[in-house]
Specification:
- This is DoxX family protein.
- Pfam families: DoxX.
- The chain crosses the membrane at residues 12-30, 50-71, 78-98, 118-137.
- Belongs to the DoxX family.
- InterPro entries: DoxX, DoxX-like_oxidoreductase.
- By secondary structure, this protein is mainly α.
- It has one domain.
- Helices cover 78% and strands 0% of the residues.
- It is built from eight helices and no strands.
- α3 (36-45) crosses α4 (51-71).
- The termini are far apart.
- 22% of the residues are buried.
- The mean pLDDT is 92.
Length: 147
């Protein structure tokens, strides 16, 4: 099989991943900002320090980061920040309730891989390493710098 034609499409999965993950974060952030009081209360109930600062900060990072991913600008930084929010979600909202309900849950490490946050961390880590790709504002700016 000649894979050169597929190599020419290498930018497409990157674009689809950026648009999908970016839209998910941006649209979710709009909902969080629209109910900021309730979102802040969730942070308070989870025991997250300074929930009045942390909840709006997370929502803004998710909105700005999601938009940046969709546009393909500052992709590596945006993906790293969004991955950090997902790591925080795993550490505060996903793992503790799981362990409270199923104390032996970590006898099966595959339980972590069922968490959507883990999949998002993997996709975001890939974007940190791969960058935005050809179909992005990052690529346009890089081409302009070379001129």
């Amino acid at each position: 099989m000649n894979t050169r034609k597929l190599d020419n499409l290498a930018w497409l999965p990157n674009l689809v991943a950026r648009l999908t993950v970016g839209f998910m974060f941006a649209s979710g952030a709009v909902g969080k900002l629209g109910r900021l009081g309730a979102f802040t209360e969730e942070f308070h109930q989870l025991g997250i320090p300074v929930p009045g600062f942390a909840a709006p900060a997370v929502a803004v990072v998710e909105l700005a980061g999601g938009l940046a991913l969709m546009l393909g600008i500052g992709t590596r930084l945006a993906a790293a920040l969004l991955a950090a929010t997902m790591a925080g979600a795993l550490a505060t909202a996903i793992v503790p309730p799981l362990l409270a309900r199923y104390p032996d849950a970590w006898n099966f490490p595959s339980n972590l891989f069922y968490a959507p946050e883990w999949l998002l961390i993997c996709l975001l880590a890939w974007l940190v390493c791969a960058g935005a790709g050809k179909a992005s504002l990052d690529a346009v700016l890089a081409r302009r710098q070379r001129w």
